[in-house]
Design goal:
The protein has 272 residues and is mainly α. Helices cover 78% and strands 0% of the residues. The protein has 12 helices and no strands. Helix 6 runs parallel beside helix 10. The relative contact order is 0.13.
């Protein structure tokens, strides 16, 4: 028994447990490599994302072009509706005018999924417009984004035109221009500020995901746009495509905000 105790006891001068605390060098290298793996994968994903953008990958460009098409058409339709609607609410007096103004301001924060659900119900086979067979098409996505953007443009237009009418109403009336004749004049006079409102609507449309996902279905080569593709590619683990599309969205956001800044500078008459 004494011999066994001597064999099991550590050598004199050794620190108990020191041998157990020191891991083999191979295990240390393995742990370090595992810590570096997420960073290397992240860097590789960014490199692949930039490569997709630089090489103009076919699927990548198709998604970007479709996104721009849907958003631009939706904003153009929303501007055709929202600009005269907002100006009419600002200039004409009618029962319920204040309610309409409050409603437009409230609809600026309309949830996209609610819009998508409403448009889905209207365009479904059981809906009133089901015979048009527009569900899960780019047209349905344009309709959803138009419904989202129109209150934004209309509410901002109403405020701009109302302020202009307050400043120039006496002058315009002295020239024989009532609200109806003054409407196009005021829209033209506030064109720079109103263009800012349109750009704000484009920013809302290009970043929307819930509504277009519901009415478009995110169908490949048909209704897949940048926002829905980012959601899908992230869930699949294809970070390169998701990051590439995200970088394009960030670039669009910067471009829109830069254009808004330039329009504001031009509107106030100061050089940028």
């Amino acid at each position: 028994m004494r011999g066994d105790r001597k064999a099991l006891s550590p050598p004199r001068g050794a620190v108990p447990g020191a041998l157990n605390d020191r891991a083999p060098s191979s295990e240390v290298d393995t742990c370090l490599s595992r810590q570096d793996e997420p960073m290397s994968e992240f860097g590789a994903a960014f490199a692949q994302a930039f490569d997709l953008i630089a090489s103009l990958d076919g699927d990548f460009v198709e998604i970007v072009v479709r996104s721009l098409y849907v958003s631009l058409v939706a904003v153009a339709l929303a501007a055709l509706i929202g600009l005269p609607l907002g100006a009419a609410v600002a200039l004409f007096r009618f029962p319920g005018r204040h309610f309409v103004a409050v409603l437009l301001n409230a609809l600026m924060g309309l949830p996209p999924v609610v819009v998508g659900l409403t448009v889905y119900l209207m365009l479904s086979r059981a809906g009133p417009f089901g015979v048009l067979d527009l569900l899960f098409t780019p047209t349905a996505m344009v309709i959803a984004q138009c419904v989202l953007v129109t209150p934004i443009i209309a509410a901002l237009t109403r405020q701009v035109v109302e302020d202009l009418w307050r400043d120039y109403s006496e002058l315009l009336r002295s020239l024989g221009a009532g609200p109806a004749r003054a409407l196009p004049t005021l829209l033209w006079d506030g064109r720079y500020t109103l263009f800012t409102a349109v750009l704000a609507g484009f920013g809302r449309a290009s970043a929307e995901v819930g509504g277009v996902m519901i009415v478009g279905g995110n169908i490949d080569h048909l209704t897949r746009v940048m926002t829905t593709a980012i959601v899908m590619e992230t869930s699949k683990g294809d970070l390169a495509m998701a990051l590439g599309l995200g970088l394009v969205l960030i670039g669009l956001s910067l471009a829109v905000n830069g254009a808004v800044y330039m329009m504001r500078e031009v509107a106030v008459g100061t050089p940028p």
